[in-house]
């Protein structure tokens, strides 16, 4: 029998996120951190800097992480789970390395990590594993004991991630004028990534057109569209589209872009659209600018009514899902049979990223996977 209430062997959970600037002076150094060695054109950086400055140089992502931390702590406490929860970022304070150092000095030796990215891809998975390897290398150089780190599996198809988004889409549909509601389309959006990164996302056996990245998003989109149909009796046409493209224009990235899609739908006579950002865990800058500002302005220009549905953020169901994932993995690590909760056609994702999963353009050490140089 598995006891999915026992967190052993874990002695801490680490929430690992992207980070964002907290004032105008932070914007440029933040963008330098994000884009170091990643070949982003200068014009694109200037443009993205403007998005942040338009919001006072403050990304909402850090407060959203603080809210998720609070939700996780509240959920753990109410479930009688006595496990500290820490937070570190890839690109801004609190930096991952500093958090990990504190955790180790506090005596933590076996850490479960939750990233604020639900899907497979280099940017959403391996890059975080590289960040963990970098942080471990720093601690090693400082002569500190190294903790063992496990990354919790992809949670795109966990009901605690999907169900809040179903509610969000229902709410957005509700906000539309009843005259257009039944014919509204749903545009599920996610971060565009280079075609080459999409095609190689996920374990090697899943590599194919669009790879695990596109396949996983399509599964979530279908789940939400089906749930909405079951709840409303209306079959809303939908499509998976993309946003926040960067990189050089001659390199192919996933398309269509949300703005082009809105234009197409308008031309086809579609009377309203719900934009559902299923690729993101919180309403951070990519949502606030690319959807709420840019795409919404595009829709207004077209005279197309749109609503943007909420991401999961600090929804208590999501916090409970994190607890479930942690206890599931703890059971696995103890060598017992774990119950693995997942909706949709793909089933629960792997615990340990296999060799060749979401490869980097330039191979670097990555922790918490089969190719980790750390135990
Ligand atoms: C898949 C994916 C996610 C979702 C998974 C996850 O959440 O991890 C994500 C999230 C985020 N991306 C974010 C911000 C940025 N991403 C950039 C650049 C890039 N993202 C990429 C992919 C992704 N990004 C890629 C392939 C690039 C090109 C450069 C490279 O290959 O690395 C740039 C550089 C400028 C630009 O070109 O846009 C910025 C500023 C923020 C913070 C928002 C805030 O501050 O509120 C968040 C949560
Ligand atoms: Fe990004």
Automatic annotation (TrEMBL):
Q: Which pathway does UniProt place it in?
A: Porphyrin-containing compound metabolism; protoheme biosynthesis
Which residues participate in Fe(2+) binding?
191, 286
Q: Where in the cell is it found?
A: Cytoplasm
Give the E.C. number(s): 4.99.1.9
Q: What class of enzyme is it?
A: lyase
The chemistry this enzyme catalyses reads:
Fe-coproporphyrin III + 2 H(+) = coproporphyrin III + Fe(2+)
Q: Which superkingdom is the protein from?
A: Bacteria
UniProt keywords (A-Z) are: Cytoplasm, Heme biosynthesis, Iron, Lyase, Metal-binding, Porphyrin biosynthesis
Claim: Lipoprotein is one of the keywords in the record: no
Q: Which InterPro entries match?
A: Ferrochelatase (IPR001015), Ferrochelatase_C (IPR033644), Ferrochelatase_N (IPR033659)
| Keyword Iron in record | yes
Q: Which residues bind Fe-coproporphyrin III?
A: 59, 128
Q: Chief location of this protein?
A: cytoplasm
| Cross-referenced HAMAP family | Ferrochelatase
Record-linked NCBIfam families: PRK00035.2-1
The Swiss-Prot or TrEMBL record describes its family as follows: Belongs to the ferrochelatase family.
Protein function: Involved in coproporphyrin-dependent heme b biosynthesis. Catalyzes the insertion of ferrous iron into coproporphyrin III to form Fe-coproporphyrin III.
Report what the protein is called. Answer: Coproporphyrin III ferrochelatase
Q: Which organism is it from?
A: Streptomyces coeruleoprunus
């Amino acid at each position: 029998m598995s006891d999915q209430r026992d967190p052993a062997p874990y002695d801490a959970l680490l929430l690992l996120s992207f980070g964002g600037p907290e004032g105008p002076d932070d914007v440029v150094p933040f963008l330098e951190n994000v884009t170091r060695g990643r070949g982003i054109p200068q014009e694109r950086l200037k443009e993205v800097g403007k998005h942040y400055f338009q919001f006072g140089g403050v990304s909402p992502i850090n407060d959203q992480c603080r809210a998720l931390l609070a939700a996780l702590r509240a959920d753990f406490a109410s479930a009688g789970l006595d496990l500290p929860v820490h937070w570190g970022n890839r690109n801004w304070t609190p930096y991952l390395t500093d958090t990990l150092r504190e955790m180790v000095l506090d005596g933590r030796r076996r850490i479960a990590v939750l990233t604020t990215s639900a899907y497979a891809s280099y940017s959403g998975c391996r890059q975080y594993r590289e960040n963990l390897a970098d942080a471990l290398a720093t601690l090693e150089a400082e002569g500190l004991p190294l903790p063992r780190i496990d990354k919790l599996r992809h949670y795109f198809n966990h009901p605690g991630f999907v169900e809040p988004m179903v509610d969000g889409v229902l709410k957005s549909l509700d906000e539309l004028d009843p005259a257009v509601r039944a014919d509204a389309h749903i545009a599920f959006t996610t971060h565009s990534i280079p075609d080459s990164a999409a095609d190689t996302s996920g374990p090697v056996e899943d590599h194919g057109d669009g790879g695990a990245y596109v396949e996983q998003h399509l599964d979530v989109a279908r789940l939400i569209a089906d749930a909405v149909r079951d709840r409303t009796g209306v079959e809303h046409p939908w499509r998976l589209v993309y946003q926040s493209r960067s990189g050089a224009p001659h390199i192919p990235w996933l398309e269509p872009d949300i703005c082009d899609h809105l234009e197409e739908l308008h031309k086809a006579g579609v009377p309203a659209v719900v934009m559902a950002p299923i690729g993101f865990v919180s309403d951070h800058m990519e949502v606030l600018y690319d959807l709420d500002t840019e795409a919404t302005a595009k829709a207004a220009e077209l005279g197309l009514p749109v609503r943007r549905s909420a991401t999961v953020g600090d929804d208590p169901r999501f916090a409970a899902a994190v607890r479930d994932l942690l206890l599931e993995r703890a059971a696995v690590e103890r060598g017992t049979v774990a119950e693995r909760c997942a909706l949709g056609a793909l089933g629960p994702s792997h615990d340990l990223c296999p060799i060749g999963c979401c490869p980097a353009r330039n191979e670097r050490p990555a922790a918490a996977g089969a190719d980790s140089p750390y135990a």
